[in-house]
Every structure is written in structure tokens, then in C-alpha cells.
Design brief:
The complex is a heterodimer of chains A (about 350) and B (about 375). Chain A is α/β, with parallel strands linked by helices and about 350 residues long. Helices cover about 30% and strands about 25% of the residues of chain A. In chain A, helix 5 (about 140-150) crosses helix 6 (about 170-180). Mean pLDDT of chain A is about 85; it is low at about 340-348. The radius of gyration of chain A is 21 Å and the shape is globular. Chain B is an alpha/beta fold and about 375 residues long. Chain B has a single domain (about 1-120, about 165-275, about 290-360), classed as 3-Layer(aba) Sandwich (Rossmann fold), CATH 3.40.50.300. Helix content of chain B is about 30%, strand content about 20%. Chain B is built from twelve helices and eleven strands. In chain B, a hairpin with a 2-residue loop joins strand 8 (about 240-245) and strand 9. Chain B is globular, with a radius of gyration of 22 Å. At the A-B interface, helix 7, helix 8 and helix 10 of A face helix 7, helix 8, helix 9, helix 10 and helix 11 of B.
Amino acid sequence: MNAELLLEVSGLSVDYGSGPGAVHAVDRVDLAFRRGEVLGLAGESGSGKSTLAHAMTRLLRPPAVVTGGSVRYHQRGPASAAGDRVVDILAMSEAQLRRFRWEQVAVVFQSAMNALNPVIDVRSQLVDAMRAHEPRMSRADRNARAAELLDLVGVSTDRLRSYPHQLSGGMRQRVMIAMALALNPDLVIMDEPTTALDVVTQRQILEKLEELRVEFGFATVFITHDLSLLLDIADSIAIMYAGRIVETGPAKRVHAEPAHPYSRGLINSFPPLTGARRELTGIPGFPPDLRALPPGCPFAPRCGQVMAICREQYPPLVPAGDPGEPGHLAACWLNTPQGAPATEGSLR
Amino acid sequence: MSDASGTSGGPVPVLEVESLTKYFPVRDASVRLARPGRRVVHAVDGVSFTLRSSTAVALVGESGSGKSTTGQVVSHLEQATSGRLLFRGAEPRFRRRSVIKAYRRQVQMIFQDPYSSLNPVHSVAYHLARPLRIHGLAKSGAEARQQALQLLERVHLTPAQQIIDKLPHELSGGQRQRVAIARALAVQPSVLVADEPVSMLDVSVRLSILNLLSELVTRSELALLYITHDIASARYFAEEILVMYAGQVLEAGPAEKVTQSPAHPYTQLLISAAPNPDAAAGTRPKMQSPGEAPSLIDPPSGCRFHPRCPHAMAICAEKEPPAFRQGGGHWAACWLLGDGATQPPQPSAARQTPRPAASTEECAKEQTDA
């Protein structure tokens, strides 16, 4: 995919609380993606994936504090000016943020029931963002756009007058997506958008999203704990563990040749629907307590290939695999020259 | 549905369910006013199956398909509207409290959410000792504690001495679910009903819980009813799969047969919708069935799947399909498999074996016209 850069996150850290009791929910995360790309962000609960997404859009609330880093967004300039205008989201003023959100970046949250207002009908909620951002739009235009949006996501337009409780879970989630697309954003962040839904509904919504993405060309950050889903739909994947990205790369590559033991364990945690029925082991142990992370690699206590250095120093995020592939990085001592015998056998 | 038990022979049946129904009265005034008369939700409508010791049976379906209600009726948290429930060949007389207590000792349940199924103000020791004291399996506190320690070791929560005095909030989700499993095992039940035991847990610990359950089924000769929406995990560790839709079982049989050669269009839909990264890119068929699960207050006539079915025929809206045998204990209730089929079901990507000719093997199931 040779499109221009859309968003660059560098060295982003987020703490909950401050002082010695602070929890490092996101720790020096680097991430970049391009226009139109689907980036999958996978991780377990507590791995920092939602915190990262909220930090990127400045949606964090106290006690969360961004303690470092930058989020550079490449805003498409006016047609006359050459190139993009680069803005740091973390440095925006409230007024700038207000315009930026929804017009440039929209978010779809997991629990549509909580994100929709239960006492306001669907039409009013769809029209709300347009009223705030484009006050010159006429009422008739706004209503027409609301109907168009519902139609886009595959919900019948007579649902405009429905209230959220009258819709099924799948329809609510579709309404959320319609709202996100109201102002044609360049980036849509989806925080577990299909987790509460049935597989069939989930698949219908994913297909609809893909259709819309091809039509409108927005980039997507898709956050989920379900790695098997990401392998299906994402162009590239970033896997988080205990607040850091442990592996990132093209989806197919990460699936075929996971370089981090945690990614390998995750991929082996999904029973296959086809092929031989075999015993799977999953990952031993339990997710770490972020308040008391061990020194070195936080995955070391659960890792089957742990070495002495793993317990002392955090591994750098370096190109993985032999031969490597552009963009495929992993933070594991097994991938580095310092990490003992990085032979074929130990990598697979 | 005499064939619903799936594979015949094998271990002795522990629990048999025959034509089980559970209707809930509708309390919503707007529904009642719009259509007067006694309105009910047909949550479970004519479900039959058999649980055998050392065997796991999976009940797979979407939310609202009645799978959890079935589990609740089996563990007697809900009373069936009609149908028979046989425990070791006899029907328990649930009107007597002593019978309920004895039954509950034999049939235990594990719930989906380990964050709400444990009492936050009580320690692990309390949770494990309570069933032991209630059922008279431990005479003293010391004895209960001793047994609780053994239970923790059985579910691999070690060191047990450190875990036993913790409060639920000090444990991770996976650890809590292990405590819940230990609590269910405390009374040495013969049947375990696990309602989505891993869907609230982190992906990396799900498999270890499934493996633990699988180990317990074999070692403790448990009969397990595994309720899930995830057909891949059902295939992973259940011997038999029942696919539920709108309160009815549409297809059942050995796990491999149901997942590798699904005969019912709904099962085919479920399988094609499941994430499957191992499938080669581009082979996924487009979803052919729009729409959502039907209302259970007014279930569709005939086959309940017909409004969404890509192969629906005239007969599907008129008559409920009987179970057509597919061989090897595998059956499906779909008219496409019968004599009157005008078109064969389209093979989905997941189907690998051709459909066996089923017309001569029509099942002995009573046809209940809708």
C-alpha cells in the first residue's frame, strides 16, 4: 500500500495516576499508518489498546495523563497548497479539537447502548454532529443526509424515528457507524465494535464496513482482543502486551511467521474450524499486574523460551524474521544478536 | 426426536431431555395491548438431547436462540413448561425441596461472568466451603478447608495455600473462573452445565480453561453441557454439537460431521461467519442471509429459519421440517434434505464432503405442523 502517511504516533506514554503508584498503561508506543489502511490493534484487557486509542484522539480523562510522546496527524490541506499540513493532536487547543474530532477522526465505541442517547431518536442523534460542525446546512439537507447515512449502513430509513431501545444490537452498532461517517472522516477508530454481537451479525457488519471503506477511503484502526478476526480483515497488525507493542507487521506475515512468543501463543489460542483437531496449549499463566510489572520483558514469566537477559532488560522493537519483511518488527531478545542462538528452530 | 441423542451406544446416559419447552409470559404492556390474548416467548421449543458421562456436548447458537435457557432448565434454575427430564433414567419430582437439593448436588453450573458469580465480600475459602457444608460433605471447618485446598489443586490454582484466603478482587478473570469451577466440583456432581464459561475471559487464558474442563470431563467422568456461541471452540472439545436457532435444534451430530459437512443452511451460515484466518484469502463466500433472528413471541411458521434462508422453498413456510438423518448420528431439520427438495443446498466453503442421500433415512421424529 503506497498511500501517504496519515498518522504517526511516537514515544507515546500514558499513566494512570502519578508518582510511584502510577500505572504505565501505555509505554513508549510508536505506530504509523497510511491513508485507507486498516490497522488492527490486538491485545488482552489491560494491555493498553483502548487507552492508546483514546490518547490518540485526546479522549482520556483523569486520572489518565499523557506523560510523553506525540501524535502527528497529516491533515489534507486545501487543494491549492501542495502536501499535507501536519498537526500534533496532543498540542491542539480545545477549539481546534472540537473541529478536528468527527470531521477528521471519528470513533465507534463498543457498547452502542451506552454511546447512544436513550431518550433521543436516531435522526436527531445523526443530525447533531452536522448541526455542530456545519451550521449552514439546511434542515432539509441534514435530514436527507441522515437518511442517506442509514441507507449506507444498511438500516431501513423508517428507523430514523426509532429510539435506541427499539433497535437490535446489530442495528445500534450500524447506527453508530453511520454517525461516525456523518462528516466523511479520514480516520475511523473502532474500539471493539463487534465484540458484543453474534458471529453472523458481526460478519455482516464487517462486510458492510469493508464496502464503505472501499467507497470512501477512510483509514481504520480496529481494536479488538480477537486476533483471529484481525488476521481476516486488517492490512497490518500491532500486538500489545502490558502497555507496549510487542510485534507489528503486515497481517499475513504476522499470521504466517509470528516472531514474538506471545503472538505465537495468541495465534495458537484459537481453535481452528478446519483441518486436524489437535490439542492446543494456549498461553500458560495469567496476564501481568500492571501495578507490579517485573523488570525486563513483562511476558518473561509466561514465556517458554525465556533467557537470563529477558528478566533484566526490556527488548528493543527490531526487524524480525530471517529474511525479514519491511515493517515487521518484534520486541523479543530472540530476534536480536544479543539474544542467544537465533536459529531457525528457535524462531519458529 | 429419538435420534437427537446423537451417537448411540457409548457410555451410559446420565441426563436425558425430551421435547423440552420453556415459555416465558410476556409482561411488556405494549406487546400485550397490540395483540391481546396470552402472549408467550417461545424461548425453548421441543429440544431433546442426552448427556453421557465422560462426554462433552456443545449447544451452539446466537444470543436469543434459547441455549442458555436450556442450560437453566437442565440445572433446574428454571422449571420447564413441558417435556421430560430424566436423571439416570428417572424423572425427579421437583415439587419436593429435598429432591431439588439432591438434584442440584448432581447437576452443577458454571456461569459466564466470573466477576459477578463470586461474592465480592467473601474469600475463596468461603465460596468452596459453603457447598460442602450445605450438602453435608464436610463435618467441620477444618475438614472443609482441607477439601477446599484439594479442590484448588484440582483446578490448578497453586499454591492453594496462598489462593484460599484471597478475595475475588485479588484474582484475575481466569483465576476467578477456576474458583467457580472448583466450587461446582465441590459436591462431586455428575453433570456440569457450563454457560459460556470462557467468553468473558482474556483470549490467552480461554484455552487453558477449556483444557481444564476437558481434563475434568475425562478424569472425573463428568457429563458436560457446554453452551457457547463459538462453534470453533465447540469443535475443539465437544464430542457432539447441537445447533440451536430460535428455540429449536436445527442440526446435531458428532462435532466433526457438523462442522466439516454442515447440512443445515443455518449451520453453514454460522460456519462461514466465524473468523477463520487459516482459510485462504478470497475464498470466503459472501454472506447470503441478511436479517436477524426472528421474534420468539411470533415465531415464523414452518421452518423458523426460512425468512433468512437463501434456499427457502414454498414448503419451508408451511411445514416444520422433520429431522433427516445424515448417517453416523448426524441429523438436520431442513426440507432440502428431504424427498421434495427441488434444489440441492449450495455447498459452502466449509463443506468438504458431499451430502449423503438422505431421503430413505427419514427420521422417526413426530411431525409437528406449525
